[in-house]
Amino acid sequence: MCESCKVGLWEEEQICPVCARLSRYGLKHKYCHKPYSLDGLTCLWSYEGVAKKVIKKAKYKFFYDMLGELVNLPEGEEYFYLQKFLREKPTVVPVPLHERRYRERGFNQAEVIGRLVAGRWSLAVANLLKRIKETEHQTGRTREERLMAVKAAFQLGTKDQLPKVILLVDDVWTTGATMNECCRVLKQNGVKRVWGLVLAR
Fold it and tell me: What is the Cα gyration radius of the chain?
C-alpha cells in the first residue's frame, strides 16, 4: 500500500466487547457482566475510506490478498493488552462461513485474515467452529435482528480437546452479535480466555 493510500487509513477507538462503549485497550469493563463474553476486543481500523474499500474488494471482488495490507498493528499503547495476550500464544480461530456461502465465494475472508495474523505472530490456526444456520446478509438489520439471526448459529466443528486461550478473528465488527455468539460456544465448551480481533469497525 502506497503512502498516499495509508493517509486514508484511520485507527479505530477501542470499545468494550460487551457494552460497545469506549474502553481503553479494548478491555471488558469491570461492571460489564455477561456470561461467556469476550475478554477483550481489538478493532484495528475505522470501517471507512481505504479500509472499507480493501475489505469490500476482498469479499466481493476476490482480491483477498489485499487483506494483508490491513493486518498491521498501528503503533501505540492502546494495543498493550493485545500484545500481552499474543505472547500467550493463543490459537487463532476464524469466524466460519456457512457451507453454502463458502461454496459461492470460494473462500472465507476470516480464515484468510486468521492465517495472515497467525503468520505475523507465529501462532497456530484452527477451524474449531462450524456455522450450522444460514443467516443471510446482516447488512441493514437492527441490532436485535442480528442477535436473533446468529442465535444458535454455531457449534463446535471438532471433537478434539480445545485450547484454553483463543484469538477469535473476523473482518468487520458491527454489533458484535456474530463474534459474541462464537465466543459463547467456545467458552461453554471449556475455553478459558477469548480475545476478539477484527480489521475494522
Answer: 16
Cα–Cα distance for residue pair 81/102, rounded to 1 Å:
33
**Contact (Cβ atoms closer than 8 angstroms) between residue 191 and residue 164:** yes
Range in 18-27, 60-69, 95-104, 173-182 with the lowest mean pLDDT: 60-69
pLDDT band with cut points at 50, 70 and 90 for residue 31: very high
Domain of residue 189 covers 3-200
Pick the closest to residue 154 from 136, 132, 177 (CA basis): 132
Helix intervals (H) in 26-142:
49-60, 80-86, 99-105, 109-121
Give, for 180, the enclosing helix (H) or strand (E).
Answer: helix 177-188
Total domains in the chain come to 1
pLDDT at 184 over 60: yes
Q: What are phi and psi of 171, to 5 degrees?
A: -85, -50
Q: Is 122 left (phi over 0), alpha (psi -120 to 50) or beta?
A: left
